[in-house]
Every structure is written in C-alpha cells, then in structure tokens.
C-alpha cells in the first residue's frame, strides 16, 4: 500500500484548515478502533508508554511479517491484531506461473503499469496457492481479522493520475467468459475479441470481471468461517465513488463493493489525500467516506452488520503531509459513518516523533 510540493498557497490553506476545522477533535464514542498500519510501533513502547496509554488499540501487520514474538508483544499490550493479505499482487509467483501474467487487448502480455504487476484472476493454480496461504495464516496465528489487499485488476491506481490498462484477455479468461455468460464472441484474433468485449459486450464483460473478483472474496470468507470464525474479514480498497475517474473502480479495477458486502465485515477505503492530489483539501477524506456509507447503507450506528474503518495518510507519500495537518486528517477520517480509523503508515512515521505525538494526542482526545 503505498510528487509536487504544496507551495506557499497550499501551506496557507492547510494552516487555515487546522484553525477552522468544522468539527474539533473531541470524545467520539462511536470510534471503536484507533489503529496503526505497517508494523509494531516499537518507538512508542521504547518511550516508556503502553500502546493503550498512547491511544492505540489496534495494529495491522503484513501477513508475511507476523511472527509469534510480534504477536506476543502486541497481545501483551492488549491491542487487537489484524493482518494485511496480498491477493493479486504476488509478482514473484510469475516465476512459477508465467501464464498468470495479464494479457492486454493486443493479445500480448500487458506491461506492469508504473511497475505494478498484477495477476490474471482466473489462473487456478495461483488462486489455489493464495487460498492455501490464507488458510495457513489463520491456522498459525490467533488474529482478530484479515484484510484483503491489492484485490483488483492489473493497474496502478495509487497515485494522482492512475494508470489503468484493460486486461485480461488471455485464452483462459476468454473461454471462461464465454462459458459463464453464454456470450458469442467473433472468431478471429485476441485483438478482435477484445475489441468486441470493450464495445458491444462491454456491460457483460465488466459484470463478469467484477463477479470473478467477488468470487475470490466469497472463497476467502468460507475459509475464514471454517478456520477462525470469530475473526473479521476486511478489505483495503480504492476510495473512488462510482463517478470518479468515469466509473473506473468498477469498469477498470473490477471492485464491486456492494457485491463484496455479502462476505466482508469491514471496509477500509484508502483516501490518501497527499498521494492522490488532495493535500490542500483534507475534507476530501470525509466526503469519500460519507459516499461509501451512503452506497453501502452504513451510518456508523451500533450493531450494524458492516463497518467502515478508513486508512488515512499522515506519512509522506506523494505530496508531503504537514505536521499541522495530522489532526485534521484524523478528524475527517474518524467522522461517521466511520467507526474506526488507522494511520498510514508506521514505516514513514518511525523517524517523525512529532507526527507520532500528534497521532497520540488525537487518539487520546477521541478515545
């Protein structure tokens, strides 16, 4: 989960945003989770404070970085422990499954956009490997939940100007599409079939692709229910509305949030305002979260089936996030319908003690 300086005017607007925050941070009993993403916050512990004392009650770790020792440290702090699980971005697996590389509309392997290497979602062996890894993770560690990550098509969207190629037009996907939908494609080259799929059959193609990605979520849910049923299933996902980027979240990335809601407990949109060109407009965070709540029918009320816990940017990635903006970002990220919030990312905060302290002040204030 991962450039242009804000300039003098931008910094002035940021400062104004701090002074004029419409909803000053205060106790927010609806916020059940105050989290950190990206590592054990050892710097807080080394300062002599416990995580709960600091205001943190949840930590997200990459699934590959979880060890019994780290689990013991976090359990000793009394915090909830969640794993991030990579679904369709394990690029190293292409060594074993070269035919899992997504195919573009020209019939050739689609180059990784901006270095982001996705995987064809219909590759059976790759899918089975990820499901087995998911099952082992839940068997080995008493986690409070697992969050799916990179669960979208071959694309680079985590930037101000996204790079969204059309994929995957491999023989396997084309065969599956015909079988699943009964659609008759023109005889001829891959390029000719892709042209038809992106024009006259576009609605059926988009719907089918979304269903393929949603079916992965269904299987993850079945494994979780069979292995560690008390754990939550969450997802880190693109924060765009249906209208942003001309509907690309569905049309290009194949992320159907409403369909996935049948299996997901917690939605964690990623409104990285600095990375996505909104550093002068932190209110964008709460606007996107509010849209998601309306779309999914989530109000942030007690007892709801679904929860929204955004992951918000306080470390620098893209436009720098100024220190004075940290409470503003967390303010917008912790407003209803959100009932939890976490900061991105500990790796970028480790050497920023002033930002760490700002996070702690806000977390303690809303606790």
Can you offer a commentary on this structure?
By secondary structure, this protein is of the alpha/beta class. The protein has one domain (7-366): Glycosidases (TIM Barrel), CATH 3.20.20.80. It is built from 14 helices and 9 strands. It has helices at 7-19, 42-46, 51-54, 68-76, 124-140, 171-181, 190-197, 202-227, 248-251, 257-260, 283-296, 326-333, 346-349, 353-366, and strands at residues 33-37, 58-62, 80-86, 145-149, 232-237, 266-269, 307-308, 311-313, 340-344. Strands 7-6-5-4-3-2-1-9-8 form a 9-stranded parallel beta sheet. Strand 3, helix 5 and strand 4 (145-149) form a beta-alpha-beta unit. The radius of gyration is 21 Å and the shape is globular.
CATH-defined topology: TIM Barrel
Q: Determine the number of helices (DSSP H or I, runs of at least 4 residues).
A: 14
Distance between the termini: 27 Å
When the domains are counted, the total is: 1
The sequence of SSEs as H and E is: HEHHEHEHEHHHEHHEHEEHEHH
What would you say the CATH architecture is?
Alpha-Beta Barrel
Describe the structure concisely:
This protein is 38% helix and 11% strand. With 367 residues, the protein is an alpha/beta fold.
